[in-house]
Design a protein that fits this description.
By secondary structure, the chain is α+β, with helices and mostly antiparallel strands. Helix content is 41%, strand content 17%. The strands form 2 sheets. The chain has a 5-stranded antiparallel β-sheet with strand order 1-2-3-5-4, with helices on both faces. Strands 6-7-8 form a 3-stranded antiparallel β-sheet. α6 packs antiparallel against α7. It is elongated, with a radius of gyration of 18 Å. The structure holds adenosine-5'-diphosphate and magnesium ion. The site of adenosine-5'-diphosphate has 16 residues, from β1, β2 and β3.
Amino acid sequence: MRKNYAYSADFDLKTEKLLKDAKYLGQGNNGIVYELPHNRIIKIFLKEKICKAEGMTLKRTKKSKYFPKIYFLGELYIVREKVEGVRLDKYIKRNGLDKEISKKLYDLLKEFKKLGFVKLDTRCRDIYVTKDRKLMMIDPKGCYTRRVDFPRHLMKKLNSLKLLEVFLTHIEEIDEEKSKYWRSQLDKYFKKKNIEYEV
Ligand SMILES: Nc1ncnc2c1ncn2[C@@H]1O[C@H](COP(=O)(O)OP(=O)(O)O)[C@@H](O)[C@H]1O
Ligand SMILES: [Mg+2]
């Protein structure tokens, strides 16, 4: 269960007005999210520091097609573009993992590198698959602070969905060197954490 935090942000006038028509979308550990008119959402944070870090990240990813546009950065809230679609883990549970999606994940991770991220990883729940099968990120966390140079979380989740081997076989066909590196790094990590390979 999520804790029932008290959110208390001071809104600018324009946002306050928009909030009258807001619809609850979801909640995580750091914030609560409402849909606003004009295809926008507002994420209200508990901590200024996290809000600022996420705002800075979204400003740095502004030109990337994978990230929502940022419209306003407040002390405790961010107004940004709404992402439509289905969470990646839900999507592949329903549809399986084909090579096209694997390639899109590979391209997304390449984009992280291009954007100067030090975290070359993401959680499945932070990637949405849109109607036209494009990938979009919703919750960019620790991208410029947490150092990890292979998609550890992503592959761990694919393993629990029994799709890791499918994914790595696709990656091997796209970029053999990468697939070898990812396999060896994940292997070390799984051994350290006593995680079994699911088949
Ligand atoms: N840009 C967005 N478009 C649509 N829904 C979103 C968007 N951002 C967040 N959400 C919804 O709000 C929830 C919480 O947002 P998230 O950014 O993951 O918060 P936290 O940082 O607390 O984990 C998400 O799980 C999702 O359901
Ligand atoms: Mg989240």
